[in-house]
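Input record (one chain):
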Amino acid sequence: MTANNIITIISSIATLSVSITIAIFTYQLSNAQKNIAKEKLKLDLFEKRYKIYNCFKKSYSLSNKQFFIEERKKILKSIDESLKESYFLFDAEFFQILEKIYKKLNYLFFLIENTISYLKKMKMKKIYKILSKKISYLLQNLIKK
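The corresponding structure, as predicted from the sequence alone:
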């Protein structure tokens, strides 16, 4: 073996070891980026799901209070938007549960509005207050189911 052959072998080994080192670092870097992307996705999903949860929770907490028709419409609109978003964020079973809650709220708000408008026409303020409380109680119990 000559000196040229030894130098060629050493330079080949050095090049190979540098290439392997770069490949290992690149692999570790890509794995770290993949893990960061996974965690960011989890966080984004959590934030979006939490927003939907808060929307439904807020509508539930407002269900036992007396409020005006316009406020009810805003609540239903907010829930409707959250429901549409939830289609992509939750599995089908959970989405159906949210959809049932939305339908119950929508129907109950419809009943409340009709009752209120009827009672206002009849100018029965005492009955209006009593029924409003009872309807709120009914709404609260139906949402629990």
